[in-house]
Specification:
The protein is mainly α. The protein is built from 13 helices and no strands. Helix 8 packs across helix 9.
């Protein structure tokens, strides 16, 4: 059978039993499309995640209104008491609360995964001839847009109320880039919970139990030197503390080699461990 079989010929084939063999022969004669690469498959699923935001724009509430509320509330409620003035406190607060906000919204990756599992969409993904991790990587790539929007909103509000980074544009971009790398890796934790737990409410509940202590027990709001010694031991070794320190120093125009190394090391460790667990659960789901 010629590989030049046209669409018209295929459309003319009846699905009745006597013609089943002829249809099979026509299909076998056609050339199969090339298998998509890992990159193209991941980008396709990432585009799907962004389209979901387009069709449900309420999802952007957490990366617009929520960050604005956090910046204004903490600056004007605690700025005078903790730093003497809001202008001084915003220089310390904004990089830290930027880290906190982006890390907190990473949990929605797990919620999205769990929702698709509940609806049966993942059953279809598993039958496709694509790179196995592509759906998971696609979720994470799509959520990077959310992290960028949250960062842009918070930096804009911060600049309006007095934030002036000494590191300039390059320092701010370096800090945001480091935050995006860490958030991408950190999201693998929630993909694991999205596969492991039964409902999206369970995913959100477990996520909040992990994220709230981890972000509040850090140097996001205050210097750890004011804390009790036993608490400092935990806070000073927290991945959120290392990340907040690195982002804060980069935006201030410094090069915090130790904090950078710790932040990237944490990101790599989280991605290796939880990425492997996630794919094991995905393959067995």
């Amino acid at each position: 059978m010629s590989t030049a079989t046209t669409k018209t010929e295929l459309e003319g084939v009846e699905l009745a039993a006597p013609d089943a063999e002829r249809l099979s022969a026509l299909l076998v004669g056609l050339e199969r499309p090339p298998r998509p690469s890992a990159l193209s498959a991941s980008l396709t699923f990432g585009w799907r995640a962004m389209l979901k935001i387009k069709h449900v724009p309420e999802q952007l509430f957490d990366v617009t209104a929520f960050p604005i509320m956090l910046v204004l509330m903490y600056t004007y409620l605690f700025g005078g008491a903790l730093a003497g003035s809001t202008q001084e406190y915003i220089q310390f607060l904004l990089p830290g609360i930027l880290v906190m906000s982006v890390v907190m919204i990473t949990m929605y990756t797990g919620v999205s995964v769990n929702t698709d599992i509940t609806k049966g969409v993942f059953d279809r993904f598993r039958t496709l001839p694509i790179w196995r991790p592509a759906p998971m990587v696609g979720y994470l790539l799509g959520d990077v847009l959310r992290y960028v929007l949250a960062s842009a909103v918070m930096l804009t509000v911060g600049m309006i109320i007095g934030f002036r980074p000494d590191g300039g544009v390059l320092g701010v971009l370096a800090g945001v880039a480091l935050l995006l790398v860490f958030a991408f890796a950190f999201s693998w934790i929630w993909t694991m919970f999205g596969l492991l737990l039964r409902t999206e409410k369970s995913v959100m509940g477990v996520s909040m139990m992990v994220i709230f202590p981890l972000t509040f027990l850090s140097n996001v709001f205050v210097d750890p030197n004011t804390m009790p010694g036993w608490l400092q031991a935990f806070v000073n070794n927290s991945p959120i503390t290392h990340l907040a320190t690195a982002v804060r120093e980069l935006m201030a125009g410094n090069w915090p080699a130790s904090a950078l190394a710790w932040s990237l090391g944490w990101a790599g460790l989280i991605m290796v461990v939880f990425g492997a667990v996630t794919m094991r659960l995905y393959n067995r789901k």
